[in-house]
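Hi there, hope your week has been kind to you so far. Would you mind checking whether the tokens look sensible for this chain? I owe you a coffee for this, so here goes:
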Amino acid sequence: MSRISLGLRLLLLAPLLLVLSSYANAQEPLTLGAAVQLALRQNPSFQTSEDEADAARARVGEAQAAWFPRIDFSQGFTRGNNPVYVFGTLLTQRRFTADNFALDRLNTPHPLDNFQTRFDGQMSLFDSGQTWYRVQGAKRLRTAAEYRTEQAQQDLILEVVRAYYGVLVSQENAKAAGEGLRVAESNEKRIENMQTSGMVVDSDVLSAKVFVAQMKDREIRAENQAEVARMILARELGLAPDAKPQPAETLTEPAAMTQTPQEWEQFAMDHRPALRAAQLQQEAATSEKKAAKAAFGPKVGLYADFERDAFTLGGPSGTNWTAGARVDLNLFAGGADKSRLAEAQANASRAKHDLEWFRSGVQLEVRQAYLDATSAAQRAAAARDSAEQARESLRIIQNRYDAGLTTITELLRAQAAQLDARSAYLSALYDWHLARAQLERSAGNLTPDSELLRGGRSQ
């Protein structure tokens, strides 16, 4: 009994332990690759794409079912005194006797109960290829749904990359703002000491205090942005907003690209999941058009039924069966088949045009993403140089101010410029990482195994 009780307790605690384990893992620093894997397991939005693929797989079985026999069972009960009903039911129950030919019993029979048990079967032998075309279309739609799931995976990875580096850059900005505040406070104290010594005027002290207040405001804003960025990342990972996932990587410059734009474009034409899904969608529309044409052809099928009729359920009964074959050919249905064919032809034409438009859109997207990635790398290099120059400029101006060779205005301007240059470099790094991820996604190559998810190179 104790073992059963212990096992039951463990079974009840298993979901809670799983949740606590996931929460604990979320508090540990996450690499970008680990964050992607966590999102693919837990993001609810991505799960809907997998549900859609499951539904498409089920529709294949639904289409294939037309090739198999259909058997229906029914159990019914009737009671009545209609002369024709009573006469026929007595025959089917195998209870008809010579006394039932009496005129009074024929004209005014007593009410009769009948429990009818039926098995009805039918099977299509030939339907002019209609089922075959529908099965082929369903299979293509199933594969298209699987490609859409793969595309949804890459879209989710892109959002995780966006949120992950958003946390990194916001934390670096908060760190830079904190450092700027500490420098401003240090300068404020130095200037107050210089005022006491009569080396600077009162306006310099006031300017320093105003600058400290500005730096405090900047730090508060940066910390708030970092908190929001962590909540956004938590949502993409399928975690609660207060989970506060912490990236384990640092914001570095990505490796240089080696492929040409033409190579990226060709790869996208061959591997972009959404494009391959659109191709299959167009093929499925063509299959549906052929199935609509097949509706005009003849259909050949078999049918059979078995019937059991009894006065009481389970009592003595009479049984009978019927079997046969049938050929159906629609001669006129008010133009319904013709209208369905016209609709299918229009859908096939639309799918063809959608595919052509989508293909050109993918080409444009890849070229634009390549240019964005190239320009982001160039802007990051320029921002890096600017940040180094601003830092050196601040050092020089600080020395000049201490020596009484420049004004407080120029010093504060240099401090603000140094912080702005640092923020601009961080923003450029973020744009660079995101542009590289967008390029991979536009080409259909942003998978969990992508090199972009293994970190960049330090500079």
